[in-house]
Amino acid sequence: MPADKPRYKRILLKLSGEAGVGGDKFGIDPETLGAVADEIAQVTRAGIQVAVVVGGGNIFRGAALAEAGMERASADYMGMLATVMNALALQAALEKLGVFTRVQSAIPMDAVCEPYIRRRALRHLEKGRVVIFAAGVGAPFFTTDSGAALRAAEMGAEALFKGTSVDGVYTADPKADATATRYETLSYTDVLARNLKVMDASAVSLMRDNQIPIVVFNIRERGNLLKVLKGEGVFTTIA
Ligand code: UDP
């Protein structure tokens, strides 16, 4: 396939609360949100089907609330509700750009969005709508990384794109260690055995079992999602 053609027809994009909506701040940062929506809009205009799983860490994270003394399951439900808020924010930002979207929540919330229905989500994707999946897997003690892996498998996505604020997986934290080098490729087993902090182990093993590659790239760089989809630019592939 020529280098300038997108490599995949259907992807699942995982955005953490910070990378997708919050931009390192608590709550919602309109600038981050607008930029991320633009990345997604470019890709859908290129004819690629995009499903998104959005996190909630910019608002609530179950583990942090539990550390502060709250019972873990309730804290996790608050985290899941936070992802619904982010999903609605992303939906609004995409619609501003003329992109058709649907939000589906793993926790049914009929007045707010659709419930998660696999076949309906697939139909939306076929029609070119961006489907934003909220509330992770819908159960406490999980994270939205696991939600992303599960939905990627259910949607038959050809790859799971993990948008972060760094351009791949490094030997050490590149923001703290100047000698850190980036991996071009890694195997799922490398990531698990070396305990590399890319995604949760459960998400990585689900991707391994279903042979879905994980592409780690920088979502903060404008135009990068489409570029990486064409195999250009800088990223790490786990396969
Ligand atoms: N969460 C959960 N089950 C899920 C997905 C998320 O309990 O299936 C909760 C969990 O408390 C988590 C929070 O929602 O900390 C926000 O999600 P996550 O930490 O994955 O967000 P991100 O780090 O991607 O912003």
Question: Summed up, what is this model?
Answer:
By secondary structure, the chain is an alpha/beta fold. The protein has a single domain (10-238), classed as Carbamate kinase, CATH 3.40.1160.10.
What does this structure look like?
With 239 residues, this protein is α/β, with parallel strands linked by helices. It has one domain (10-238): Acetylglutamate kinase-like (Carbamate kinase, 3-Layer(aba) Sandwich), CATH 3.40.1160. The protein has helices at residues 17-22, 30-45, 62-67, 72-96, 118-126, 144-154, 188-193, 201-209, 224-229, and strands at 10-15, 49-54, 101-105, 114-115, 130-134, 159-164, 185-186, 214-218, 236-238. Helix 2 (30-45) crosses helix 4 and helix 6 packs parallel to helix 8 (201-209). The model has no long low-confidence stretch (mean pLDDT 96). The chain binds uridine-5'-diphosphate (UDP). Uridine-5'-diphosphate (UDP) binds at residues 16-17, 55-57, 61-63, 76, 79-80, 82-83, 136-137, 139-140, 142-147.
